[in-house]
Design goal:
Layout lengths: L1 E4 L2 H9 L10 H9 L3 E8 L5 E13 L2 E6 L4 E2 L4 H17 L2 E6 L22 H9 L3 E2 L13 E6 L4 H7 L2 H12 L2 E5 L5 H8 L8 H11 L4 E8 L1 H28 L5 H31 L4 E11 L2 E9 L8 H13 L6 E6 L12 H8 L4 E4 L4 E4 L2 H9 L9
Parallel strand pairs: 4-6, 12-13
Antiparallel strand pairs: 1-2, 2-3, 3-4, 3-5, 6-15, 7-15, 8-13, 8-14, 9-10, 10-11, 11-12
Length: 418
């Protein structure tokens, strides 16, 4: 067997047929990374009959003189558990990288570290990557550890929803507070629709406070992946007219209910007056809420008669999976719960389809400590009855040990997430 540089079309053809394919290991992602200033190589392990047994997209940059840093995003497209194939690929890859002046290569394979329950606890009879890590280390890979937060280039922890239920059962599987917030969004006239390239400017305004990236970063995503129908952009707006109508209707219904409670109290139809008084107090609170909503909705309708955008998200579609990439919310309207409704509408759209999963993207591995700065993020994504996926983490494959050690000790050569 030998290692060959191959055309992008050949690479994509093999990748599409492999069980562990992912959109990071595609020529489209390679093209997008070239827009970020990286170079790309497409490599394949082939026999004398040109049968491919494994491949990798490697993105790279010069980082110290002639020496290069390489990264195979989400690992190789290969059977990691076929010892002969994996070892052969690694040996030939090291020879190739050495000849081309690489200091080291980073990979983060899509291998499960430990099987987790929905609350993040380890399932004792589940998967365990300990032996696999030792096998990788024995052939030259250096495991970078089990990070808890977002220290790695790609998230090590993900929240994933299986699309294995009908709409009613899926909705009921969500935690109560998630369902309440979805209903609250609908009550306030929040709507979700698919946007287009013209919406990227507003999308960018919503996310730029959290991500230090130029707007071209997102235009490139859209232009490259949309052509293959691998990307959608969702916009969330407040329909101000609907917000006002809903608020008025709810106020009128609650007022009628409130008056009936007062009538029952005075007539003494129910001896349990304490219960009725409590119901009256709860109804009074709702009337205040709905009245405030009417005031706010009236002002918003005057200012935005056609509604306005308050949230957005970019989504990748690949390998029977929907993956949320980036979300943005106008903090002034966070109480309208746009992200809750957005996630539900996307999940609902792909139920009973050819897609099997919705990946809500990164979470962190700290599940019980409420002081964790990402506790709310975890709670939100876990509220959709998601499964917790813990990947094995990053590995470095040192090629030139002296340069690698120098680079490892210096923050100057650390690469940004991409």
């Amino acid at each position: 067997m030998k290692l060959y540089e191959i055309p992008k079309e050949v690479f994509d053809d093999f990748s599409r047929k492999n069980e562990i394919r992912n959109f990071y290991q595609t020529s489209l992602y390679g093209r997008w990374m070239e827009k970020r200033g990286f170079n790309t190589i497409y490599l394949a392990l082939m026999d004398e009959k040109n049968i491919i047994y494994g491949e990798a997209l490697i993105i790279y940059k010069n980082i110290f003189g002639k020496y290069k840093y390489g990264y195979a995003p989400r690992g190789y497209i290969i059977d990691y558990y076929d010892e002969y194939i994996f070892n052969t690929f690694t040996t030939l890859l090291k020879d190739y990288l050495r000849k081309h002046d690489f200091a080291y290569l980073k990979i983060d394979p899509p291998i499960i570290n430990k099987t987790r329950s929905k609350d993040g606890s380890v399932i004792s009879y589940g998967k365990d990557s300990t032996k696999f890590i030792k096998k990788m280390e024995s052939i030259g890979y250096k495991h970078c550890g089990f990070n808890t937060y977002f220290e790695t280039l790609k998230p090590r922890w993900n929240a994933v929803i299986k699309l294995d239920k009908n709409e009613d059962d899926m909705y009921k599987s969500f935690k109560k507070d998630i369902r309440n917030k979805i209903n609250n969004a609908k009550r306030k006239g929040v709507e979700v629709y698919k946007g287009n390239r013209d919406d990227i400017k507003r999308f960018y305004e919503l996310i730029k406070k959290n991500y230090d990236r130029p707007i071209e970063y997102y235009y490139d995503y859209y232009d490259i992946f949309k052509k293959k129908d691998m990307l959608d952009i969702y916009m969330v707006k407040i329909n101000t007219y609907k917000y006002l109508i809903n608020s008025q209707s709810l106020y009128e219904k609650e007022l009628e209910k409130n008056n009936k409670i007062v009538e029952d109290i005075w007539k003494g139809k129910n001896v349990n007056n304490k219960r009725l008084v409590n119901k009256k107090m709860e109804s009074d609170k709702l009337l205040v809420v709905y009245k405030d909503d009417i005031k706010r909705a009236t002002k918003l309708l005057e200012k935005y008669p056609n509604g306005f955008i308050i949230a957005s998200s970019m989504v990748i579609k690949y390998n029977k999976q929907i993956q949320f990439l980036i979300d943005g919310i106008d903090d002034a309207y966070r109480s309208f719960n746009p992200n809750h409704l957005l996630k539900w509408e996307v999940i609902r759209e792909y139920l009973n389809s050819n897609y099997y999963y919705v990946d809500l993207n990164g979470i962190v591995g700290n599940f019980k400590n409420k002081d964790n700065p990402y506790y709310g993020l975890n709670r939100f994504k876990q509220g959709f009855n998601s499964d917790i996926i813990e990947y094995i983490g990053e590995f470095d494959l040192p090629i030139n040990y002296n340069i690698y050690k120098m680079i490892s000790r210096s923050s100057t050569f650390k690469f940004k997430k991409h």
